[in-house]
Amino acid sequence: MINKRIQMFGSPAASVWALSWLAVFAIYANSSELKEFQFKHHNNEEIYDAILQIREKCPSITSLYRLSEDSVEGRPLLVVVFSIHPTYHKPMDPEFKYIANMHGNEVLGRELLLKLADYFCDEYNAGNEEIVKLITKTRIHLMPTMNPDGWQRSTDDGGSNYLIGRDNAEGVDLNRNFPDLDRIVFDNEAYYKDINNHLMQMVDHLEQPVQPETKAVMQMIMSIPFVASANLHGGDLVANYPYDASRYGNVQGEYATSPDDETFKWLALSYSNYHADMANPNRMPCRGGDKNFGKEGGITNGAKWYSVRGGMQDFNYLSSNDFEITLELGCDKYTKESELEKEWNRNKDALINLIWQSHIGIKGIIKDAVTLKPLVNAFIKVVNVTNGQLSPILHDVTSVQDGDYYRLLTDGDYHVTASMDGYLSSTKLVTVENKHHNEAKVMNFTLEPIILPSNYSKKRKRFAYSNSITADKLQMF
Predict the structure, then answer these.
(1) 15 neighbors 218 (Cβ within 8 angstroms)
(2) What is the pLDDT of residue 327?
(3) Where is the Peptidase M14 domain (predicted)?
């Protein structure tokens, strides 16, 4: 039944934003009764039903879409969106995403995102000021399962095996299956190149075939201008941040610093400090001999823990404007059903607080000073000048569809430069003071065009949030 409903939404090859669920939703809504949310392990069909029920309860602030590829076994990969403009990107409103169940046997995040969607809907309808403000100011994407096939295998086996269901139906670990952009950025560093962002155009080969689930999420990342995100896992209790890969091979305990190390630690702490137990220094480690991450604030640099190549976390940071962290939500991979409600209460405040972090730092719109038209794919470069220091943050972000940009930054003083080929650069000084659950400081730029000589050769073309560029690049996968 559910597959027939899903098939009506459009072909798997259609672009991520072009699939409308409204017609099928209308059919479904007339033939179902609203049910109260239950803390249980929802099977794959029940997940689809639960999402559709949420859409029925909150049609004005939700939309649903299906990613461009199905799972290996043909299960659709679905996302529910919360916003007062749920079907489109609105300038100056940051986009945030949660993806869960990437490893099919790590199931808590899957249920937490279903409950979070239900909670958002109910609290918005009830007039909860904090939730109304968050949904009014942010566009939030929730993807409960990236690996429904693995979940099915794990569940069929009883959910007790540490490995069965971890991989997708082809036996591939999806969190090792993304293009290895760490290899590219570390090579750039070795040869003193300053290219540290939007690296997809530099991919020249793949270590292994890209799985359909991976390709679908890559299309999502490269099509929607996400600002921040998290990937929900299980098996330990810690917030993990880039870089996930070691610079010097699989070196045990190597801290692989990214240019935005301070910002990533801020994001990780924004989750761990709001979780009931993640940052508790007195809690026990998951297993004998394991590190007690609670003594480190409940956070860790990914490579310092263990090195991962081809992971989704670093791919987000190095292919797009998105700052992603990975959340390990508990010692058990397949959480007992009786524990789900307790785990929701332990994670709820942290889940919500992390979404608010898409509003830290600065944001604005970059325009042509003559035409006042927005400039797409302009660069934002940042130098930290707090307390007289002069520390360039060698990771640029770019303006997106409507000339809007979002630059996550911790508290401090910064020189911010907007630049684009064919324009004079503009630099401004800004003091960032991130106030609790408030919007980022607005800093707009207008760039003066310059007349270029006829023999001017453009610099390397960087990635833009453009369907045509995305489609062309993804053909190699």
Answers:
(1) no
(2) 98
(3) 40-358
Residue with tokens 């660069």: 379
Between vectors from CA 105 to CA 240 and to CA 271, what angle results, nearest 5°? 25
Residues in the chain: 477
Instruction: Assign 451 a pLDDT band (cuts: 50, 70, 90).
Output: confident
Of 19, 73, 15, the closest CA to residue 211 belongs to 73
- Amino acid at residue number 140: I
pLDDT for residue 1: 39
For the stretch 418-429, pLDDT in tens is: 999 999 999 999
Burial 356-373, CB ≥16 within 10 A → b, else e: bbbbbbbbbbbbbeeeee
In angstroms, rounded to a whole number, what is the distance separating the alpha carbons of residues 51 and 54?
Answer: 5
Q: What pTM was estimated for this model as a whole? A: 0.91
pLDDT tens figures, 242-263:
999 999 876 778 999 999 999 9
265-288 in b/e form (b: 16+ CB < 10 A) is bbbbbbbbbbbeebbbeebebbee
CA distance linking residue 16 with residue 218, whole number of Å: 11
User: Which pLDDT belongs to residue 33?
Assistant: 65
Q: What is the pLDDT of residue 453?
A: 63
Active site residue 111: no
Query: How far apart (Å, rounded) are the C-alpha atoms in residues 400 and 379?
Result: 10
Virtual torsion, Cα 233, 237, 239, 242, nearest 10 deg: -70
The residue from 95, 111, 328, 343 that is catalytic is 328
Name which of 177, 1, 148, 4 is nearest 70 in CA terms: 148
- Per DSSP, the residues of 399-410 read --TTSEEEE---
Name the token pair of 315: 């791919």
